[in-house]
Amino acid sequence: MATSPSTPTRARGRATKAKLMTAGVAVFSDKGFRAARVDDIVKRARISHGTFYLYFSSKDDLFEQLVAQVAEELKSLTESLPIIRQTQESRDGLEQWLVSFIELYSTYGPLIRSWTEAERGGVSTQEDVLGTVADALALKVKIRKRKDFDPRIASLALLAMVERVNYFSVTGQVDEEAENLSRTLADIMLDAFFA
Amino acid sequence: MATSPSTPTRARGRATKAKLMTAGVAVFSDKGFRAARVDDIVKRARISHGTFYLYFSSKDDLFEQLVAQVAEELKSLTESLPIIRQTQESRDGLEQWLVSFIELYSTYGPLIRSWTEAERGGVSTQEDVLGTVADALALKVKIRKRKDFDPRIASLALLAMVERVNYFSVTGQVDEEAENLSRTLADIMLDAFFA
Amino acid sequence: MATSPSTPTRARGRATKAKLMTAGVAVFSDKGFRAARVDDIVKRARISHGTFYLYFSSKDDLFEQLVAQVAEELKSLTESLPIIRQTQESRDGLEQWLVSFIELYSTYGPLIRSWTEAERGGVSTQEDVLGTVADALALKVKIRKRKDFDPRIASLALLAMVERVNYFSVTGQVDEEAENLSRTLADIMLDAFFA
Amino acid sequence: MATSPSTPTRARGRATKAKLMTAGVAVFSDKGFRAARVDDIVKRARISHGTFYLYFSSKDDLFEQLVAQVAEELKSLTESLPIIRQTQESRDGLEQWLVSFIELYSTYGPLIRSWTEAERGGVSTQEDVLGTVADALALKVKIRKRKDFDPRIASLALLAMVERVNYFSVTGQVDEEAENLSRTLADIMLDAFFA
DNA sequence: TATGAATGAGATTTCATTCAT
DNA sequence: AATGAATGAAATCTCATTCAT
């Protein structure tokens, strides 16, 4: 239908749009895509109902713009992933990277979780976030082939673990300090890869 | 509001209710709680609209009854979890158990994923499925204390991994045979626990 | 459930809400609470269906707000009731007051009659309109104690009579001019009180 | 539509029908015609849903049969009303009659109140119960014409009073013994008629 | 650029009545 | 004569989007 309205040109307009996007992350995270009401978003942004459609052509449009934003940040993140070998250096590098990963997930995790739900036409599933990162990870892990599984699955498995534990950490179902978690998880990952 | 209508007394009624519950699992899994239409459910069950409300007082009610059913099955599953040691026997037992776990997830996984979305009043999140099973697993794993993490987190992490990989398997983003997966995952778990 | 939506801030909104309340009185009066359709109300107000729920969270909510409005007007009415003695002055004052009472009943009588029907939880019955006014009346009537009845019952009885006759007048089962009625009723009341 | 099913021929059938009518009085009285659910009625009668339609072709049909029953009893009541003059004998007779009237109202009052609500096609209003009785009463009262109102209005007014007070007595908003009430009301009536 | 109000398509829910046993 | 189950038309309510100012 209507294409996304043009980007606001003045400072005030940009500020309004930013407020709406921040509110969008919060509300989509809280309630999921479907349950999120445009009303919830505009209330949280303290913006009027009509103004929303000045910046986004629809609820979908807002979601897509948020996704694009996350994708952007994810891209830089995966690109910063170091080569992983069975060395102390790698361990430190991986741990460091996991801190960033977890940080990103603290902000966007629940939003990403609502990804699937928002898919319209089956497109988004393939653009799976974890899958993408896992593929990058698999390429960086210098691991010997094991007869029973390939690195891609292992990467996916381990990232899933990271994501989930972090999710529990964010929602308070597990209370460990972030720092602690990343070390623990780095340990498990390396143990698993190089068992 | 209205309380859940009484259980049907005759065979025909019980069959109808069962049909509706089966259809419910399918539709909630497909679309998530919010997007699922009562209409979708009754159409799939080939039952009239009004009949739905003969057995469930609302869409919420159906969901809650499904959750209760899953919880029940999960309970038996966790109870059947064997003690896990660093032996070949344990490996086989765990692998076997994972097959059951994965099977359960094949049926109810997507439903469980729509859990959060359906929560009304924040109750459900705490009754997290994985969390519950993870706690049971932690108790069964005979593992030496590692300085940096307790078995509960490890269990949770590993189950998260299992769940996620299985989810990818179900949705076709990873294609491995179930049998293969369970062995792979059992390997990773034991490696991680007893590294 | 949902709480009553907030009051409109601008003139147009207030006008719309007023239109809906006026239509509500008419429709509830015509058909009673249960038989009244939200559809009837919005059609009469020439307002769209969705707008109704912008101002009232439900049919119940509209009814409750109308009841509150009636209660408000009744309060002023009872407060304006003069002291009643066996004098010509009192007779005139009472007659005058009855005119107001009848006028109020012409507007809200049928609505008040649908009170009982709408009661949810048995609250409304006790807040009986006539009862309230009768109590006020009993306090204002300077009457000697009669051995067989107290002023409160007499007041109630007489007001009931007034209400009913007026109702018949409104529905055309009795055709007397309003002016005529109030004099007649004032006569009967004073005769009864001071017989 | 369907005409009323034929009267049951056997004892069991008659008992069932009686149970349904009793339940009908109770439920219509409690909730009014519209709000009364067939379900409420059959539950109270401890009869199955389907059986209801064995005896009554519709909810309306039940109501009409109940009305007919009340009308019957009312007819005998009005016929038993004595001539009323300004004598002690008349006072006693009227009081006695009011006892019967109140008794009838204790049973059917709330049902009669739901009369108007049930009217379909404006027929019932004219068959107003009080109106009918009032007319009978007016004929029996040997009263001199007052310049300002005719006996019919006075009768109606007074009966309305009687009905209403009795209604309050039934619902517990006034607590006087029935015996007491009838004397009080007889007093007011005669005072009013023969002031 | 911003807003409060209005809209209406589409969802959920109710309940008198019919059906099969 | 009795029953539990099924039906579907009609009602209530929701909410993304558009409109007028």
Report on this model:
Four copies of one chain form a homotetramer. Chain A is mostly helical and 195 residues long. Chain A has two domains: 1-56, Orthogonal Bundle (Arc Repressor Mutant, subunit A), CATH 1.10.10; 66-194, Tetracycline Repressor, domain 2, CATH 1.10.357.10. Chain A has ten helices and no strands. Chains in contact: A-B, C-D. Chain C binds chain D through residues 32-35, 113, 116-117, 125-126, 128, 130-131, 148-149, 153-154, 156-158, 160-165, 168, 171, 173-174, 176, 180, 183-185, 187-188, 191-192, 195, and chain D through 31-32, 34-35, 113-114, 116-117, 125, 128, 130-131, 148-149, 153-154, 156-158, 160-165, 168, 171, 173-174, 176, 180-181, 183-185, 187-188, 191-192, 195. The structure holds a DNA duplex (21 and 21 nucleotides).
